[in-house]
C-alpha cells in the first residue's frame, strides 16, 4: 500500500511517499481503509524528534494521529464493530500511521463515525476532541457557572474546547486575532481578546480554570488570572513526571521531567493554584461520547483546509505555519 514515511528525525524532514507492507492485524484489531486523515502539531513534534525519548518509534515511521474510514477486516476477538462500519479514531501511541491507505487499530480506540458529518470532518476530530475532553472534563472538571480561559481559540484544540466548555455551562474567554472573533463568538466564546493588541492578564481575573497551549511566559501569566484553588492544564509543557509514568519511560526521564517542571509547579503552589500537564491518550469510549455530542449538534468540526493525500507534505507545512483556523485534513477519496 502507499504511505508517507519518515526516515529520520528532523524538523525539516520531508515525508516520502512509498510502498509499504500491509498492516498486520492482531486479534483485537480492525483494519480501516482510510478515507481522510487529520494533521496535528503533534505530527510535527514527532517528526522533529521531540518525543523520541518518550515514544521510541522504530524508523521508518508512518505519521498521522487522526483517521476516518471504513472497516474492511476485523480480528478474531473484535466485538464492537463489523466490516462495513464507518469509524473514526485516534490510534494509540506506538500504533499511529494515518498517512497511509490502510491502518490496523485496536478496537478499543475506535468509535463509530457520526452520521451527520463527512469523512473529512470526522478525521479532524479525534485528537483535538479527546484533548479537550480530557483537559476540561477529566482534569479541570469544569462545571456550570465557572469561568474558563482557553488560549488560541481559533486553533484545532481551541475551536472544540470552546464548544465543549460552553456545553458544560462555563463562561469562556479566549485569545485570537480579531479576524477570528465572529467565528469564535458563534462557537460560544463570551470574552474575546485580541492577542496582537491586548494582554489577557490585564483583562481576566478570578478564573477557575485555564487550558494552556502556548509558551512558558504565557503559561506564567495564566497562573496569575486564576483564583486560589484554580487549575491550569497545559498541553504545550513543561511536562511533569506523570508523563513518564504514562508512557512507561525510564526512571531518568521521570527525574528529568520533574526538574523541568519544578519552576512552574513552584510558582503555581505559591499562588495557591494547581498545575498539570496533559499528553492526551487514545480512548474509543470517550470518542463515542464526543460523537454523540456531534450528532446532537453540540460540537461542530471546524476544518480550515482539505488537501489531497499526495500533498501531505504541503498540508503539514501549513499546520506548522500556525495560520490554520481549526483543523487541516488530507483526503484519500
TrEMBL record:
Organism domain of life: Bacteria
Signal peptide: none
Cross-referenced Pfam families: ADH_N, ADH_zinc_N_2
GO molecular function annotation: oxidoreductase activity
Enoyl reductase (ER) domain location: 13-330
Name this polypeptide is given: Alcohol dehydrogenase zinc-binding domain protein
Source species of the chain: Fibrella aestuarina BUZ 2
Higher taxonomy: Bacteria, Pseudomonadati, Bacteroidota, Cytophagia, Cytophagales
